[in-house]
Amino acid sequence: MARISLRSRAWHGDEQIELPVPEAWQVEVVEPADAPELPEHDLLRALAQPHAGPTLATLAQGKSTALIVVDDLGRPTPAHRIVPHLLRLLEAAGIGAEGVSFLVATGSHRQISQQETERKLGADIVARYPVHCHDAFHDDLHDLGRLPSGMPVIVNRRVTAADLVIGISCILPHTMAGFSGGGKIMLPGSAGILSIAELHSFEAKRERAQLETSPDHPDAREVIEAFAERAGLAFSINTVVNSRREIAAVVAGDIRGAHAGAVRRAVEIYRTEISADLRQNADIVIVNAYPLDADPVQVSKSQWPRGIFPQAQMILLDPACDGIAYHGWSEFQKASVVNMLCGTISEARTQGRYPAALAALLSQPLFRGLGHRRLRRQAQRTDVSYQAYKQGGGTIHSNTIAKRMMAKQAPLVICSQSFPEWKRAVQFPQAVLLPDWAAVAAAGYLPDAPRRVAVVPCAPLQIPV
């Protein structure tokens, strides 16, 4: 047997695995351009000498408290490498340990455990500093009014209470914002559920890895950045990881300039050349969900190869290590038919997805005003928080309309020990869920005959060209 070597189980071992495959297979691994790990001195220089905007030393003048906002384990950001340097810079600028606290920007994801927080920040940091996980449903929130687009700026009060707010996040291709990172640490990361619902319901989406906005109207990325500015994000630290989940680049500074610089670097590192011949003639495509293979909610970020390899049988490797699969916005959207309809408006306003006439109609203030009032009522009375989800199982189990509207009908083999069966049934009803590679072979998906096989080693990162 030949073997395919892949990284697996981000945040849960980060191990190298070997997949045995038939010798008769013609295997081609389509790897990203990639980059080496960033040396420590370059990391420190990126923080001390920002790409755009004032330095931390300048921003900290006259301030006594700093809130450091980090993403959760749904993102691969190795924040534990950045935080010690950041703390030293803050201390040198006059903000000591007694003035520093942390917020885990879960958005509407679940709150993470102390052990998971220690993986993200380091056990010594968690022991020494206050750390709070954002709760979009139940936290003390501050309403800062609306943006010109109509977006309500409702953010965790810890953000507005701090003198200096610093965000640490990761640049990944992202459907809705084009790329993650930057202002997303505020919206949806630190926002209330109403702001999160409005973002997903009314703002035009960008395609995955889309760089430019639509010329017709503002889109989600622009609204996210304006929200973050209103909320008070002063210093944005954007990381780019490599295929081994190491920091390959750091671009820091103001929200817009630092994010744009980090995206340019990410495009270079994640660029993946895939020949037209392989696209058309691959019989099997093995897609590895690393480094977003811890939380099964992130499974959608590994689905793009389906469109690149239209003739291939897709086998997805996604350990889904935590097996929980909770997403508050998804639960909120599925709580009622009206919420689901609101959630389709941003699709219609996204360039090329629906007829232009429909997009123009749904952009009218009347529709947004009606939707906003409806969503506000829903946000006040609908509890689909993580605590409610744990107690009641979540609306996704019972909403048949949601199941039918949002299911992916394409055939798929999911190789996973912890991917929830209910999520497979709801999201991928035509998929087969198998616990390990041996079971995939036993089920006949690894035929001992000549096959053209493409391997996508870190799908969530990769940008096909």
How would you sum up this structure, described in words?
It is a single chain. With 465 residues, the chain is α/β, with parallel strands linked by helices. The protein has 3 domains: 2-30 and 273-325 and 406-464, no CATH class; 40-269, LarA, N-terminal domain (Rossmann fold, 3-Layer(aba) Sandwich), CATH 3.40.50; 328-402, no CATH class. The chain has helices at 40-48, 56-59, 79-92, 114-121, 123-128, 157-161, 193-202, 220-231, 255-270, 276-281, 305-308, 328-333, 337-348, 356-362, 365-381, 386-392, 400-406, 421-427, 437-442, and strands spanning 2-8, 15-21, 26-29, 66-71, 100-105, 131-133, 141-146, 152-156, 164-170, 173-174, 178-179, 233-241, 247-253, 271-272, 284-288, 313-317, 412-415, 431-434, 452-456, 463-464.
